[in-house]
Design the sequence.
């Protein structure tokens, strides 16, 4: 090889270097190039927006929520686990001067589900808004919230048991508020939905338990409904008090046990709740505390169990036993912000379980949250779950969440 | 001379008529005063500095509600129900802009659904319009912290900020209420005179400060520092909006020791353990300055606040003639 050979080898790379330098800030051999694409300046050369124009694209954001935890006791699988609990993608933009729309898709690393997709119509005047599409129900202060936005890692036990971990439905909701004096606002919402049963948990086994369902086609009176009335008012210069009442009504549902084909028809369930929250901030706004809670009552057909007919263990002749007892549950919490980055708190919840045996369960959380910034957070949460009919279990979890882009969900007050 | 006959009946009738007229005039006065009060322009000002300036120019014609309190960090304000109600009834919203109030203005505008104060409408007054901001990022990326795309928003802490805000407030009030233009202009002229006197006073006081080294907790005194000829050598927040870490504090303390004679500017909300640690380890002086009107006695007005700022800095850096 003569002395010019290395130069000849290097020539093509040298010639292409300027282009690479623009598209790939750093790349190791064998790795794909990162391409950022050309600037959009050429798109409007003819001064007309066209099908390739991106200037009216919605604002996109995504949120990552990771959990590493250790569980012990309670007869459940014990040990360490790490998982991506949710990767949320969101887009939102104005449709026209009277409406804005958004969607939220969520993945646990495997399937991608559309959690919400709705339009807010604001053209009615006053403070009225009509929301139509698929969205979380307006019940209390936590059911409208996505899990990564909660104070604790999970929703309070009473909500999970009586309403479901997440309740969303396709429907339409009217939302309005009025001022009562100079420092109080009263807000209400009424919604009608196709189906407000919580989505079946991933570990639900239809061969072991009855699964509730709602007919796709039904009369108007059998639609599912929500309603909420809430008021919030200034308390002195630094405090805000909020109180509210909520209801979720499922007038008609059925339960099916797959192995035997047994069905229970004309079932119904109504959950009502009353919530109270007080928030206080110091004069500098650096320190803050929030206390609150909610009391829930579930009436109608509140639970299902399987009766082993003949005691033979054969599920093909088993029947569904419907529990129609009224169930109660509540939760309360206290949260203190040490400064703008650090806060800690406790939460306690108890609920009567829908097992027809009048047993209850209790859950207590202690947590510490550190916000690196408003876009990145880490949380340590210790949870003790103690049902009457089983041993207590313990969970120590670290939750890490981040937000990229403009983020915010519909109603948050 | 024609003799006047005293007629008691006539006198009584006359008195009755006069009383009727008086009551009518009083009723009209009360009625017009009530109407006038009811017709007052309802103004929501995001920070107390703007509230003061709106009152100075609007006089009795305006009724002002303020969202931020004087000791708060405007980036972290949580709106209250009364703010939502005030926004829903407002004829005018006056904000600084430059994303200073991004924590609460967009949410309140969305919740209040008051068409009169939406961006683009005469009732939406953005007082940073036409301002030459500092720190406009060349690259927009969260890598650089809580950056403000339009530049540093703390223009209320510039000695020149009062005039800028007053001019925009005047234009905004006239746009919404042109019938009261003369009154607004008269009061603006009076306020402008006060500003002129204050600006001269401050300018004298600032003369010996040139080149003195300063660090800040949050970059909310950049305009003040620039206007006074001070030299900003660092900030306790490693990036805007990010809390200091152990390593960032250690680096800053080393730098402060090397630079020598560095003064720390902190706001009431940020005068915390990190500031105390730097003072302990470097022996630096710390000056707590207001970051908005109303939080500290004597800062109820914007001019009063800027006077207090200059008095406190004079104690550290010395002063020109005016005190």
Sequence:
């Amino acid at each position: 090889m003569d002395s010019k050979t290395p130069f000849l080898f290097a020539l093509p790379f040298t010639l292409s270097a300027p282009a690479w330098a623009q598209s790939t800030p750093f790349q190791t051999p064998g790795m794909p190039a990162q391409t950022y694409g050309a600037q959009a300046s050429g798109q409007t050369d003819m001064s007309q927006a066209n099908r390739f124009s991106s200037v009216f694209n919605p604002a996109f954001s995504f949120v990552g929520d990771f959990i590493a935890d250790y569980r012990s006791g309670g007869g459940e699988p014990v040990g360490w686990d790490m998982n991506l609990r949710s990767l949320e993608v969101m887009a939102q933009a104005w449709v026209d001067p009277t409406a804005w729309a958004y969607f939220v898709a969520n993945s646990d690393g495997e399937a991608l589900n559309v959690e919400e997709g709705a339009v807010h119509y604001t053209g009615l005047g006053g403070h009225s808004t009509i929301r139509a599409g698929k969205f979380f129900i307006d019940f209390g202060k936590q059911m409208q919230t996505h899990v990564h936005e909660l104070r604790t890692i999970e929703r309070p036990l009473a909500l999970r048991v009586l309403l479901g971990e997440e309740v969303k439905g396709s429907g339409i909701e009217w939302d309005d508020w009025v001022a009562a004096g100079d420092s109080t606002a009263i807000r209400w919402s009424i919604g009608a939905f196709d189906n407000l049963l919580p989505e079946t948990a991933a570990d639900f086994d239809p061969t072991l338990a009855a699964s509730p369902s709602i007919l796709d086609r039904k009369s108007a009176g059998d639609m599912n409904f929500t309603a909420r009335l809430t008021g919030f008012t200034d308390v002195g210069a630094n405090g805000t008090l909020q109180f509210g009442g909520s209801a979720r009504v499922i007038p008609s549902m059925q339960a099916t046990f797959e192995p035997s084909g047994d069905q229970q028809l004309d079932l119904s369930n109504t959950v009502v709740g009353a919530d109270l929250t007080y928030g206080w901030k110091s004069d500098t706004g650096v320190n803050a505390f929030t206390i609150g809670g909610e009391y829930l009552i579930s009436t109608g057909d509140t639970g299902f169990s399987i009766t082993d007919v003949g005691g033979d263990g054969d599920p093909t002749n088993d029947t569904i036993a419907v529990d129609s007892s009224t169930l109660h549950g509540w939760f309360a919490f206290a949260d203190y912000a040490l400064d703008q980055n650090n806060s800690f708190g406790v939460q306690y919840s108890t609920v009567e379980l829908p097992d027809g045996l009048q047993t209850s369960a209790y859950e207590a959380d202690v947590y510490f949250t550190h916000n690196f910034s408003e876009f990145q957070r880490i949380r340590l949460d210790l949870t003790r779950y103690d049902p009457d009919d089983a041993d207590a279990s313990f969970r120590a979890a670290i939750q890490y969440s981040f937000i990229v882009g403009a983020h915010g969900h519909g109603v948050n007050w | 001379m024609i003799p006047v006959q005293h007629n008691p009946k006539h006198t009584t009738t006359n008195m009755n008529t006069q009383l009727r007229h008086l009551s009518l005039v009083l009723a009209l006065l009360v009625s017009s005063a009530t109407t006038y009060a009811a017709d007052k322009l309802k103004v929501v000002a995001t920070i107390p500095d703007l509230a003061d300036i709106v009152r100075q120019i609007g006089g009795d014609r305006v009724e002002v509600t303020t969202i931020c309190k004087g000791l708060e960090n405007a980036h972290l304000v949580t709106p209250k129900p009364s703010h939502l109600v005030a926004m829903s009834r407002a004829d005018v919203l006056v904000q600084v802009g430059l994303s200073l109030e991004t924590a609460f203005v967009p949410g309140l505008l969305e919740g209040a659904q008051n068409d009169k104060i939406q961006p683009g409408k005469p009732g939406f007054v953005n007082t940073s319009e036409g301002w030459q901001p500092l720190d406009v990022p060349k690259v927009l990326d969260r890598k650089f912290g809580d950056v403000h795309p339009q530049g540093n928003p703390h223009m209320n802490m510039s000695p020149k900020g009062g005039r800028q805000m007053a001019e925009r407030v005047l234009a905004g009030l006239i746009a919404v209420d042109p019938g009261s233009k003369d009154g607004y202009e008269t009061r603006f002229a009076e306020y402008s005179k006060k500003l002129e006197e204050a600006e001269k006073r401050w300018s004298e006081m600032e003369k010996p400060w040139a080149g003195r080294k300063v660090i800040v907790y949050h970059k909310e005194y950049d305009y003040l520092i620039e206007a006074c000829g001070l030299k900003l050598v660092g900030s306790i927040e490693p990036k805007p909006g990010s809390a200091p870490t152990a390593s960032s504090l250690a680096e800053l303390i080393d730098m402060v020791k090397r630079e020598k004679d560095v003064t720390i500017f902190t706001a009431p909300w940020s005068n915390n353990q990190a500031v105390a640690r730097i003072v302990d380890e470097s022996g630096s002086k710390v000056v707590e300055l207001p970051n908005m009107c109303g939080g500290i006695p004597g800062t109820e007005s914007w001019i009063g606040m800027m006077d207090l700022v200059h008095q406190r800095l004079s104690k550290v850096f010395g002063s020109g003639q005016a005190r």
Observations:
- The longest strand of chain B covers residues 41-45.
- The beta strands of chain B are 41-45, 62-66, 92-95, 124-126, 213-216, 231-235, 262-266, 285-288.
